[in-house]
Structure formats: C-alpha cells, structure tokens
Amino acid sequence: MKTIPRAITPRLLAALGDTPAVMLVGPRQAGKSTLVQGLAGGPHPARYLTLDDLRTLDAAHSDPVGFVENADCPLVIDEIQRAPELLLAIKAAIDRDRAPGRFILTGSAQVMLLPKVSESLAGRIEVHTLWPFSQAEIEGVPGRIVELLLDGTTRTAPAPASVRGDLIDRIVRGGFPEAIAREADRREEWLASYLTVIVQRDLRDLANIERLAEVPAVLASLASRVRAPLNKTDVSSSVGIPRTSLDRYLTLLEHVFLLCRLPAWHTNRIKQITKAPKLLLSDSALLAHLLRTDRGRLAEDDSLLGAVLECFVGMELVKQLSAARTRASLLHMRTATGTEVDFVLEGADGRLAGIEVKASATVRGEDFKHLATLRERIGDERFVRGVVLYTGGERLPFGERLEAWPLATLWTDNPPNPPVSAARERD
Fold it and tell me: Rounded to two decimals, what is the model's pTM?
C-alpha cells in the first residue's frame, strides 16, 4: 500500500516548532507510528523508541529518569501509555530545558485524561488526535468541509454523485490502514482480531476489569444505537449489567478511542433540548462488523444504511476537524418534541452550521424542516448555513442559507464556485 500523507502533519510540525513536547494519541493501528517515524526521519530529526519492544519497556520501567535524561537528541517515544511514569521524568527534563520539539509521544490510550498526568504536563505539551484515514486522505485531496460549512461566503462546486455502491464500499472499508490494504473477504478477520486485542490487551492494561467478556456485548449494543442520544438505562438493561459497570466501560472504550463522544448542543433559545451525548463508533468498518452486516445487507436495508451512514459522516467530520485550520466543535441536537439535527458544527466565534445526512439521491423541502427551525431560533448572526448531505451530485439551494450538498464533498477537492441552478424535487 502506498504511503498516504496525513492531513494533521502541518499542525504537528507547527506544534514542534514552539512546544517542548507533542503527544499524538488515537486508536491502535491508526497510523501513529508510521507518521512519527516519518517526522523523526525527515522534517524533525529524532531518535525513535517504541515501548512495544520489551527491552525498551523494561528499561523505561527500571529507570524512567535515566531513560529520559540520557538522550542527547530529541526523542520519539511510541506507546507512552505502557510506561506513564516516564511523563514525570519528561516534565522534569522540560523544566530544565524548554526548547521546542524535544519530545514526540504517541499513545493508543488517552493517558492525558489521568489527573496527575494532565496536571504535571500542563503548559508543556500539545495533544493531537490521529484517527484512521479520512476519505479525503485516501483520495489524496485536502479536507475542506469544515471551512466550507462555516465560511458563509464560500460556495462549493458540484461534486460527483455518491453512487450507492461506491458509498457502501467506503463504509465497509473504513479507514484503518491495515483493513484498507486487505481484500474484502479478509477484512473481517482483521477486524475481529483488532477488537480482541483491544479488549484482551489494552483494556486489561488500563484497568483491572474482572468481566472483560461483557465488553463485546456492550459494544454491540452501542453499535445498534449509534443514531440516538445515549440512553444508559436502555443499554445496561439490554446487556444485563449495572449502570455503574456501564459507566466504567464507556470511559475505558473512549480512552482507547473505540468510541467518540459528541456532546449535545444547547441554547436557551430552544427549549427541552436533550442533554445526553451521542456516541459514534470510531470506524465505519468496525461498526458494520459489530452489527454483523455486510455490503449486501447495507445495499438492501435503507434503514440500516441510514444509521451506519450517519456514523460514517460524523467520523469524517471528526477526522477533518482534527486537522482543520478553522477551530470548531462537533455536537448534535435533539429536543423532547422531536426536533433533531444530526450534527451541529460550532465555530470558536459562535457561528453555527447544521448538518443532516440522507442516504438518497433526491432531496425534498421537508428534509430541511429541522435545519430551518435551528436557523429561525438562532438568528442571522450565528446561523451560517444548514446543509443536507445526500448522494446526488449537485449543490441545490432550498431557501435562505439552506442547501443540499453531495456527500462526496467530504472527499472531493472542491474549489469555490457559484451554486448550480438545477431543478429539485419538490413536495
């Protein structure tokens, strides 16, 4: 498989230019090691060490201070979560010399969420997340969807129609480099092994869980509910575990990046907004695997395809956000009265874009009713645009700041252009 450039690289190099330590976290097998080895062997020369090597790990455990202090050049330490005691030694080294770019750390578990770790490295480290490949990275084009959504003056050119078969292929392929490189009939074996390693190794390393056998059932239950806000009572009841156990599992699954939590967006201008987050599976191929579905079933079941597609789009937005120049947060909105917007993109300046996902080549005016509600309640100053992503190939206007965009906009290099004037299906 050819080397695919990662969109996050410029942000990492910028951080290494002014910050003593940079940490790259993300799911196992997302490509972190490949990326940091490329940095160490090219634009940011450094010595590469991996704690997956047992001798290196033993040295780190035996003498963490010496492990760090004996380095006479910048260090890359891969899989830092396997020896978190190194972080205190790194803090001491940085306090003596705050030169930028001294340490590049990677982790397949979110060690920065541990209170002692986050406190000790505050102001000394910049943390970035590397997810599996985005579709834009796979296609070798810049991911511009965040800028396009929040720039009220930018207009997207028509993108290729997202042919249903191609879209399903992208979903079941996912973004893990190893899974992409495999033939379709061998991908399932890799996905099953991947989940086994996460449960039997990573989760066991993070916490002393007596009933690890429950974790696959929890994941399967969550996978079947990816379209809805998290209902802990429903999930715990379906699996037959206490709420306290579920809370612990959810935290650990987030720590190893199998789950991505989208908070609920809220405002006092809209009443009765659900506060529960929405959980996304971090990779669409893993989601399809957990749902025991394949390409054929997705092609035949519109409801199932719609649920999986929403998660797929959500993670594509998350991935592009991790490398975007525009700072923004991805959230969701649902009210007790039934108003729902799949995704709300909120810029650092408070501007908003609403995104709905539709697994269809046609769009109707009624598909915009929730986006129109959001526009009316928020007002002109904050609401930039509402977009329905669909499988057609044209950008179509549906009212003031409401538009239909091709799903392929997520992985197409679209220069700014005026919207097309095309007939659309009406109510």
Answer: 0.92
